[in-house]
């Protein structure tokens, strides 16, 4: 008689040890997990070192599961899906009422926020690592990122959906700042300092998040990726500037029309007053206001290039093999 295989499946901070016979199928495993977590098999995503594209009637050993394997389960519960559908229905009802009001009495509205967010385009779950210090503080930071108005704006605009927003443990992957799993199935961010004595600054982590969100569309760090990533960062900066100014108008304030997404991103940061991005300036007292603006813009672009190169070097995401 074959000896059982012991695996551990983690789901939202809870670890479920399972004892399975080697010939047990993946379908059987999914049924067991549904009993434990209320996540239906069709909504389950299992992350482990092994073969991912295996039919449900294959044995667990054929998928690469063996004694001691650690598996991460991602997926919404039946209750959460019911709540999501109810939220979508309520959203549709409100949209209908607004349309009817606009048809009856059209008015000009001066708005400082984005249009109503689609509940599909969000982070569907937040999971700090429970074995690291201060998991409640990590959850607070992840929640702040997930609810950041500028991040929600770009996610809704570009129709980004992320299954799980979680963190990377510095001691496990010290070279990484971020990782996007399967184009949005999960995004993992480096929240903590190397010595675990605190957390990295919010804007540093948020910039990594924009980088990893770009991987929802593009796997490789090619020109397509760079253009979209710069666009996301520009839109975040512009959104915050517009909120502060109380308007959606985003002028160039003396700058020429940007020639690339990176230049547009740099302009947005300069106009938004993010001087820290510009670094040291070479302006002199004899420079005209236009020349000083040009130098600040150039310094900001150089700083953004360096930051983005570091993010690429410390990003664990790559395009899937063909």
TrEMBL record:
Residues 114-305 form the WLM domain. InterPro entries: Ubiquitin-like_dom, Ubiquitin-like_domsf, WLM_dom. One of its GO terms (molecular function) is proteasome binding. Residues 99-120, 303-322 are annotated as: Disordered. Residues 5-74 form the Ubiquitin-like domain. Residues 304-315 have a biased composition (Basic and acidic residues). Transmembrane segments: none annotated. This is WLM-domain-containing protein.
């Amino acid at each position: 008689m074959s000896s059982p295989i012991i695996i551990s499946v983690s789901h939202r901070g809870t670890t479920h040890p399972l004892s399975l016979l080697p010939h047990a199928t993946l379908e059987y495993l999914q049924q067991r997990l549904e009993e434990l977590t209320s996540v239906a098999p069709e909504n389950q995503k299992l992350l482990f070192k092994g073969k991912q594209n295996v039919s449900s009637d294959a044995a667990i050993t054929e998928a690469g599961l063996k004694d001691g394997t650690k598996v991460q389960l991602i997926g919404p519960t039946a209750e959460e899906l019911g709540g999501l559908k109810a939220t979508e229905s309520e959203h549709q009802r409100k949209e209908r009422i607004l349309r009817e009001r606009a048809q009856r009495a059209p008015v000009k509205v001066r708005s400082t926020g984005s249009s109503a967010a689609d509940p599909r385009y969000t982070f569907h779950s937040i999971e700090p690592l429970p074995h690291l210090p201060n998991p409640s503080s990590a959850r607070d930071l992840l929640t702040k990122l997930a609810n950041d108005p500028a991040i929600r704006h770009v996610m809704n605009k570009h129709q980004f959906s992320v299954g799980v927003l979680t963190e990377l443990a510095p001691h496990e992957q010290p070279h990484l700042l971020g990782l996007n799993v399967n184009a949005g199935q999960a995004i993992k961010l480096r929240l903590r300092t190397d010595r675990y004595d605190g957390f990295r600054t919010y804007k540093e982590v948020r910039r990594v998040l924009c980088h990893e969100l770009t991987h929802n569309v593009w796997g490789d760090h090619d020109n397509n990726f760079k253009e979209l990533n710069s666009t996301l960062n520009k839109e975040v900066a512009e959104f915050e500037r517009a909120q502060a100014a109380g308007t959606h108008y985003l002028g160039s304030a003396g700058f020429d029309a940007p020639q690339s997404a990176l230049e547009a991103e740099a302009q947005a940061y300069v106009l938004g007053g993010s001087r820290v991005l510009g670094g040291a300036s070479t302006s002199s007292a004899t420079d005209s206001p236009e020349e000083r603006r040009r130098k600040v813009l150039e310094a900001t672009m150089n700083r953004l290039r360096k930051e983005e190169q570091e993010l690429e070097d410390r990003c664990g995401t790559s395009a899937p093999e063909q």
